[in-house]
Amino acid sequence: MAKRLGVAIAVLVTWACATAAAAASFDCAKAASAMERTICADPALSALDEQLAARFSAALAASLDPGDLRAEQRRWLARMRAIPGTAELTNDYQVRLDVLARIIADTPPVSALRGVSEAKARAACLPALASQEPDETCAVDGFGPIGRADGQDLVYALYSYRTASGVAMGMRALIFERAPGGTLNVLYAPEYDGGDFQAPKLIHTAAGLLLHVPGTDTGTANLNVERLFVRRDGRWRDVDVTSWQEALASRLPRGTQARIGVYPDYAAMTAQTPLWRGDRDCGSGGHAVIGLAWAGDRIAIARLEVRRGAAGC
Question: Among 11, 206, 242, 300, which has the minimal tally of Cβ within 10 Å of its Cβ?
């Protein structure tokens, strides 16, 4: 399945201002890590960092799957923090710049994603989002209404990508906003290789209206690949739903781990997962009950309790 809008994503390098000593995309006076200090000390690296921040912003603005792009950027940044040398950092910056350039170049033009006939959207995959692989086909597996947000109708379509022999390669979930004339405009189109998306739904919560795109990795770990958006100031904002799960590992008791997908209840802002102790059976380490909270446009861990007994094994 061709990835056209982004490889799988994490926390954006949102470094905002520069000092006179170095033109990095962050404040060198506050450089804390070895990687940041190395960048600030090298004018060429500093320039690459500024260039990457600008290119990431451009890719994010064009992306139909911003949550995935942010998650990948966060993972890339985490890997970069472990790189000590200037030469290695320079190489990785250049590789990442090339990846972001390809994402921008492969993003379909806005004109191909707006003014779509509902009849055509029901019948076939949009040509701009059809598979680019010669041995793959694209089919509409689901289509229907999601609901209304600020008086605007939302509609979804589910695309499945398969090889000529019928092997499933991945899915894409399209979120449309109905235009005044009755045509459809694509808002988002998250994509995942080797997983399934389900029909999106609206969730009314104390934090506001959420647009939830459920998704599951079809591997043995049953990983959660959902997307989440929150309605704020008359527009949808993508929500970081992955960084809290990455942080969960460091919060669990020593010797225990979560090995399967965690599926939060966003109305109650809670989640739970069975825990393993070494290679023993599911639930051998009890289970974790997690209270979640909003931190801007990010879901964060508010409290964590480990209880005896398995849950969801």
Answer: 206
Helix, strand, coil fractions of the chain, as percent rounded to 5: 30, 35, 40
How far is Cα of residue 279 from the mean position of the Cα atoms in its chain? Answer: 30
Asked whether the beta carbons of 130 and 2 are under 8 A apart, the reply is: no
60-70: b (≥16 Cβ within 10 Å) or e: bebbbbbbbbb
DSSP 252: S
pTM as predicted: 0.86
Q: Cα–Cα distance between 71 and 12 in angstroms, integer?
A: 8
| Cα 248 to the center of its chain, rounded Å | 17
Q: Which residue has the tokens 């942080």?
A: 247
Q: CA–CA separation, 197 vs 226, rounded Å?
A: 8
Residue type, 250: S
Q: Alpha-carbon distance 220 to 155, whole Å?
A: 31
Q: Does residue 22 register a pLDDT over 70?
A: no
